Amino acid sequence: MGLLKNIFESRSKKNGILFDKITSILGFKPKNLSIYQKAFTHSSAQLKDQFGNDMNYERLEFLGDSILGAVISCYLFDQVPNADEGYLTKMRSKIVSRQNLNQLGKELELTALLKTSKQSDSFGKNIDGNLFESLIGAIYLDKGFKSCEDFIYKKVIEPYVDIKRLEGKIISYKSLIIEWCQKNKYNFNFEISEEDGLDGIPHFAVRFYINNDPIAKARETSKKKAEEKASRRAYYALQDQFE
Fold it and tell me: Taking the model in full, what pTM does it have?
């Protein structure tokens, strides 16, 4: 009997700590704590919910991503009434970029709430942003869309969204340089080769050409990273022509 009492007291204490931390982050008391428990459970924990389904944050992350995108879209639609679809799409991408979401997750220290069997340094670089989206999904299921919208305004839009500043922010140098080349009817191409790295990890060397002239080169552990780095270097090499 004493053992069972200790188990239940332990669970109650852990739930109380989670409840207090979630309340502090949200600014209001959650109604259904189990939703937030799922929002901060990694698949490596291999837990099941009461219905036998896998208990992890991935589905809530998907839901939160959609809701976040919808709230930001509505905000931009209202704030910039004369903007076309392309402008609105670019601005939304800048606001909900992985870099921004990761920063928001880190500021809220969401990984400290994560239940997992993995070491913290083994997670991917987007874990903080993933948990932020999962939290939004949990708020929606627990309190509804209005509470979710209020949270996004409080944590994302009011402190960080400055439309004029975001207009000048570059989120993809590759997209920018390709668009510039197409606009000016320049031929361009990325020449990619794979190399062996000193650390045993394959690296990719990229050379970027415009009208057969070499403009920039870069080397990274993935093609995507190497192309982006080469594009960034090309942008700065040609920056005067972009103004």
Answer: 0.69
